[in-house]
Design brief:
By secondary structure, the chain is α/β, with parallel strands linked by helices. It contains 12 helices and 8 strands.
Length: about 300
């Protein structure tokens, strides 16, 4: 598929929503903004004066590396919260490369389409000077601020309007930041209760209605929009987003008339074994993989 065909998808899909990862930051010049660099900083600051880590060892996921740091400091009082505050502080000084981000975000905003970002930082809302808002105050917890978003408008239906939502947590609430495998498992547990209500049964009815438990959260977007995913590695360690795509696929299998489309945009010529594994996973969950020749195609050309 060429860039024009991808542009046509963006233009012609009325129910489109976008899932954006950290690739958007790194492409537009913020090379220091990477989860690996952040995790290594945290490790070397809290390693008990043992040998410094210059890279995350092969065979250990980022989430497992973070949990290893928690285990290393498990007896320290409030260490998890302090680590989350440290992440919050480090990210708070990040600034967007506005011209690059704006070209993409203005296109998305012109379609009045929702955005889910797996990032914790606020670079996307900063670039468009968006306001912080809440769709629902009832039952709010800063551990899971899933009814919070950034937008220039009040959103009444997450799937129908432009807003920036944060499935993995946001720096505004340090306790919401999810970096470890154990923390992501907590997110899965919370989402499962909303999606299925009865955690002992797989029950999907009503996810396209405005009265189900997840309607006033970003979860409504997962089940009621066609998803355009880019700038996101979605490796095996991305257990939460991958699990959500699995639940989404099950839901569409049970209710085929409610099915929505999905695309994963990636640059060609990645390591073959990784590419094939991703293709297998995405095919299983009903997401089409689109390979473009250059990163410029992904982050510039398709948005022109």
């Amino acid at each position: 598929m060429n860039t024009q065909q991808v542009k046509n998808i963006i233009e012609s899909t009325s129910d489109i929503a976008f899932i954006i990862g950290n690739g958007i930051n790194r492409y537009f010049g913020n090379n220091a903004i990477s989860w690996e660099n952040l995790l290594l900083e945290l490790w070397n600051e809290n390693n008990g004066n043992t040998q410094q880590q210059t890279s995350i060892p092969r065979g250990v996921s980022f989430t497992e590396f973070y949990d290893a740091l928690l285990i290393k400091n498990f007896t320290k009082k409030d260490f998890t919260a302090e680590l989350q505050k440290s992440v919050q502080k480090k990210m708070s000084v990040w600034v967007p490369i506005e011209n690059g981000l704006k070209s993409i975000l203005n296109k998305i905003k012109s379609k009045n389409a929702p955005v889910l970002t797996t990032n914790f930082d606020d670079l996307i809302p900063k670039s468009l000077h968006l306001e912080f808002r809440k769709l629902e105050e009832k039952g709010f917890t800063d551990f899971y601020p899933w009814s919070c978003y950034y937008s220039d408008m009040q959103v009444n239906n997450p799937s129908k309007n432009f807003g920036v939502w944060y499935p993995n947590g946001m720096i505004k609430y340090h306790r919401s930041i999810k970096l470890g495998l154990s923390q992501y498992m907590g997110s899965v547990s919370r989402a499962r209760k909303l999606i299925h209500k009865d955690v002992e049964r797989i029950e999907f009815t009503g996810k396209n209605q405005n009265y189900w438990e997840g309607f006033k959260t970003w979860l409504h977007i997962i089940f009621n929009n066609s998803l355009f995913i880019f700038g996101l590695g979605l490796e095996e360690s991305e257990v939460f987003i991958r699990w959500l795509l699995i639940e989404r696929a099950k839901y569409f299998k049970k209710f085929p008339k409610r099915r929505h489309k999905g695309w994963y945009i990636m640059k060609k010529k990645e390591k073959e074994e990784i590419t094939e594994g991703k293709k297998f996973f995405f095919k299983s969950v009903g997401i089409d993989v689109i390979e473009l020749n250059e990163y410029k195609n992904v982050y510039e050309d398709i948005w022109e």
